[in-house]
Design brief:
The chain is an alpha+beta fold. The protein is built from six helices and 14 strands. The chain has two domains: 4-188, no CATH class; 203-282, no CATH class. Strands 5-4-3-1-2-7-6-8-9-10 form a ten-stranded mixed β-sheet. Strands 11-12-13-14 form a four-stranded antiparallel β-sheet, with helices on one face.
Length: 283
């Protein structure tokens, strides 16, 4: 069977990371419904509160669980992550019931200095996420069990498996399990390889694409490299992005591409893609 991730093998990854300046992760062993929070048995009032937080904080809320573990019971872990440049941090705590999650949205919690690795395995949302995400999660857990979690829908299913590196919010796609393990190890050492990088969740698509091409040209690999200084839109569908550390300016155009196919296994109609073309790169 040909799946969406097979058909998307040639699609451009850069500029496709989902938006999110903050993340709220809730341990929920399962089962997960197709719409993770609304259909996974959580208290509806809590779902409403989490949704309101996400809208206000420009955040993303995900269900998480340890790879291979499905049993419920006992306290559940939560993580509140700030991915904004210069504010990268993780706070954590536990709850014994759903109501405690509302307090956790603003609770001080405990500082969590270790990075988090999330592998999307949300098969009820898209088959590719389960088929490709679970082997990645298992491989990561084999070497970094305390840092690794399976997670619900991230976005961009055709780039499965999706790997999220927190707290920075880097989103990778299309790695093999071994490549994902190597990428996570590099991130822990302060390095990100653009080979599978879709972008950083804190940046808009045009900036993600600009940084991708700047990393390719300059060789900058540091997680804090290429800090965004200014973003201008000199014309419709045109962008100019200035970065520092090292100093680079990228001009690019944005275009809509109609591939003539559904973009996910679950989709029933053709979708469209955003792609970027570099006009100039000055360093």
């Amino acid at each position: 069977m040909t799946r969406c991730s097979d058909l998307a093998a040639g699609d451009a990854r850069e500029g496709t990371a989902p938006p999110g300046e903050r993340w709220f992760l809730v341990e929920h062993p399962g089962p997960w419904g197709r719409v993770a929070f609304a259909q996974s048995g959580l208290d509806p009032a809590v779902v409403t509160a989490l949704d309101a937080w996400a809208r206000t904080a420009r955040g993303r809320v995900l269900l998480i669980r340890r790879p291979g573990r499905r049993s419920a019971g006992g306290p559940r872990r939560w993580f509140r992550v700030d991915s904004r440049p210069g504010h990268e941090s993780v706070r954590t705590g536990t709850v014994t019931d759903d109501a405690g999650l509302v307090d956790a949205l603003s609770a001080p919690g405990t500082a969590h200095p270790e990075p988090l690795y999330l592998a999307c395995v949300h098969g009820r949302h898209d088959t590719c996420c389960a088929v490709r995400g679970r082997p990645l999660a298992a491989a990561l857990a084999a070497v970094e069990p305390d840092r690794t979690w399976e997670c619900s829908h991230v976005g961009g299913c055709r780039f499965a498996p999706a790997l999220v590196l927190l707290p920075h919010g880097f989103v990778l796609g299309g790695t093999s399990p071994a490549q994902g393990v190597a990428a996570a190890a590099g991130y822990a050492d302060g390095v990100v390889d653009p080979a599978f990088l879709r972008g950083r969740s804190t940046d808009p698509p045009a900036v993600q694409a600009a940084q991708h091409h700047a990393r390719l040209v300059t060789g900058a690999r540091g997680v804090d490299a290429l800090r965004v200084v200014a973003v201008d839109a000199p014309g419709t569908g045109r962008w100019r992005v200035r970065m520092a550390g090292p100093d680079v300016e990228v001009e690019l155009t944005e275009r809509r591409v109609d591939p003539g196919r559904p973009l996910t296994c679950a989709a029933t109609a053709p979708g469209w893609m955003r792609e970027f073309d570099v006009l100039a790169l000055r360093s």
